[in-house]
Design goal:
Order of helices and strands: EEEEEEEEEEEEH
Largest sheet: 12 strands, antiparallel, barrel
Radius of gyration: 16 Å
Number of domains: 1
CATH superfamily: LURP1-related
CATH class: Mainly Beta
Number of helices: 1
Strand content: 35-45%
Oligomer: single chain
Shape: globular
Structural class: mainly beta
Helix content: under 10%
Strand order of the largest sheet: 1-2-3-4-5-6-7-8-9-10-11-12
CATH architecture: Beta Barrel
CATH topology: Porin
Distance between the termini: 17 Å
Length: 212
């Protein structure tokens, strides 16, 4: 049974002037990682219409540009700012302004029955708003919610892996993994794209059983 999605009470845009990334109805899109160092990724609707394209070269911070899939316009940069098991990332606009900061954390004792893993995000939108979100594991899917008390139980997106071709250590392998996001109406798809990028990196670097 699919998790019911609810539109957030507070609308938050990661980007302005990109309303075509905010749909008036529920959206489903796939993200395909074409190799195991995440330097060439694509996101598209189920119909095949492109949404985002990711390009970059290998570096210690894994800095990549995220572009509009249709207009090929540079939207933002995505990179790591901390290394190790508990990762951290930042999203920066083309002007270098920080738009979002994300961190991976484990709640509870690792490997215990009550432990679960989350990515928490602080968003400073280009129109001056601020919001906090979290992506946590629930069974085989990840659920995205607002951290405010009024909205903490309103799930507005889910993410899960739908396919994988596992050939570690080889560059340029086609369609190494595929992830799917289901997003409520009125949610900025670029924010969910960022969370999918985070989740795929966690899975590649650290196979943690409580974060599917």
């Amino acid at each position: 049974m699919e998790t019911p999605l609810q539109r957030p009470l507070t609308e938050v845009k990661l980007l302005i002037d990109h309303d075509h990334h905010i749909w008036s109805e529920e959206a489903i899109f796939n993200v395909v990682y074409h190799n195991n160092i995440f330097e060439n990724d694509t996101a598209s609707c189920l119909s095949g219409e492109p949404l985002f394209r990711v390009q970059g070269r290998w570096s210690w911070s894994r800095r990549r540009q995220v572009l509009d899939g249709v207009k090929d316009h540079w939207l933002f940069d995505f990179r790591q700012h901390t290394l190790g098991i508990k990762k951290g990332w930042v999203v920066e606009g083309p002007d270098g302004k920080q738009l979002c900061s994300l961190r991976h954390d484990i709640h509870g004792r690792p490997n215990s029955s009550g432990a679960h893993s989350c990515v928490e995000a602080d968003v400073w939108t280009q129109d001056g708003d601020y919001a906090q979100f979290q992506m946590c594991s629930f069974g085989s899917e990840l659920q995205v919610t607002n951290k405010s008390v009024a909205e903490h139980d309103r799930v507005f997106a889910t993410i899960h892996k739908v396919d994988v071709i596992d050939t570690p250590g080889t560059r340029g392998d086609p369609e190494r993994s595929i992830w799917q996001a289901r997003v409520a109406a009125g949610v900025d798809l670029s924010l969910i794209m960022v969370l999918v990028l985070c989740r795929a990196e966690i899975g590649d670097d650290w196979q943690y059983s409580r974060f599917p």
